[in-house]
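> call design_seq(struct)
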């Protein structure tokens, strides 16, 4: 089989290839600023200066203050730093004897679920806010649950499996008036909509570079002024004491370059992701096929809840009353040359039924049938013909 071209890679919510400009920038920074930023000599000074220039540029692109951007190894680590860092062990916080509560949604990424479980082991209560059939959180239930003992909320802004964008402005206002700390997992929204974080009453936000054609192994946590965090990696006290370990200066420069590219694309297209019209056209083609149904919000309808602009998620009917298993469909589509996902790449080794689709009210055979298609800026209209045909062949083969 000939190696598939990038135009057949439809799994950008899992990861993306490095943009050539990003690879070039990283090579330059690696050559010129390879020193340890903590060293007290010219090599170290060059690396430290480069790191701080990247931090400043990232802050400007995110619309926040530079001293508040903490670099990490990726989305999972940022989420853990946000949750574990803002929820100290109970004996330090608890004067009344009541356990504090963390609210998460029923459709969080496994990294947030793992961090929530760690808080539970520290004695915190963890409660899930239910979602509707489209994956949007139940705002009435959420508002009720914001009452004491809730101290912390962590929500996925753009859902990776079904694309639902939560109404974060409303959520942030509710948290602010209840005096509850809010962390958003913004890994999937980064680069797909403009972010002006200083204007948002959100306390902590997690990001990763590799979803936007940046390198793997680098992420960021934005910490709003006044928020005190406890580090969970100790050592040399780098990143303002919040994340010890010699800084990955070239990876950070790659993250900055990737975010600059994504931001430029949004600016040129009036703050909209230019891949959205292609995604909409692909949705129209696929949903016109018999037995193909959408999960998550309909991209053809405006209003709440919105959908990630590069994201499509489907269930495909076998034709005799059964849903095609998502993992088998992904494997068969790969034989047709297309790289898709059966949901979240991070959960693809787990049980067949998606916890996200189950939480949205799908029965188990449908919840095992999820197919995710996520586009990148390089995709073009050839997809509109090629992919539906490949899906039809895959369905026939199965
Ligand atoms: C919404 C969301 N949060 C967190 C993560 C974890 O990010 P990373 O793989 O960089 O640790 C991912 C990655 O798939 C994600 O999609």
């Amino acid at each position: 089989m000939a190696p598939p071209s990038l135009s057949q890679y439809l799994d950008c919510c899992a990861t993306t290839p490095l943009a050539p400009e990003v690879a070039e920038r990283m090579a330059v920074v690696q050559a010129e600023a390879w020193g340890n930023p903590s060293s007290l000599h010219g090599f170290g000074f060059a690396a430290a200066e480069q790191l701080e220039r990247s931090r400043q540029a990232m802050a400007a692109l995110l619309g926040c203050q530079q001293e508040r951007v903490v670099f990490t190894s990726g989305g999972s680590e940022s989420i853990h730093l946000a949750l574990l860092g803002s929820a100290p062990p109970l004996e330090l916080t608890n004067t009344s004897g009541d356990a504090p509560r963390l609210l998460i949604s029923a459709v969080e990424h496994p990294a947030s679920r793992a961090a929530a479980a760690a808080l539970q082991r520290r004695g915190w209560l963890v409660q899930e806010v239910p979602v509707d059939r489209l994956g949007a959180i139940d705002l009435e239930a959420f508002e009720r649950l914001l009452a004491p003992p809730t101290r912390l909320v962590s929500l996925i802004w753009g859902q990776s499996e079904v694309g639902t964008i939560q109404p974060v402005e409303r959520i942030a206002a509710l948290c602010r008036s209840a005096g509850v700390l809010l962390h958003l997992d913004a890994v999937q929204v980064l680069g797909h909509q403009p972010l002006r974080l200083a204007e948002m009453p959100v306390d902590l936000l997690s990001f990763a570079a590799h979803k936007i054609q940046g390198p793997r192994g680098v992420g960021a946590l934005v910490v709003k002024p006044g928020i005190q965090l406890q580090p969970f990696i100790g050592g040399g006290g780098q990143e303002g004491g919040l994340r010890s370990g010699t800084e990955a200066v070239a990876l950070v420069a790659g993250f900055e370059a990737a975010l600059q590219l994504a931001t430029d694309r949004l600016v040129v297209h009036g703050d909209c992701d230019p891949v959205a019209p292609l995604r909409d056209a692909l949705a129209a083609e696929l949903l016109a096929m018999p037995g193909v149904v959408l999960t998550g919000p309909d991209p053809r309808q405006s209003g709440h809840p919105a959908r990630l602009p590069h994201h499509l998620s489907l269930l495909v009917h076998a034709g005799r009353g059964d849903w095609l298993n998502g993992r088998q469909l992904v494997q068969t589509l790969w034989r047709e040359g297309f790289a898709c996902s059966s949901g979240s790449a991070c959960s693809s080794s787990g049980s067949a039924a998606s916890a996200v689709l189950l939480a949205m009210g799908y029965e188990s055979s449908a919840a095992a049938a999820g197919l995710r298609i996520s586009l990148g800026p390089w995709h073009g209209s050839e997809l509109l013909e090629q992919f539906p045909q490949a899906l039809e062949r895959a369905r026939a083969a199965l």
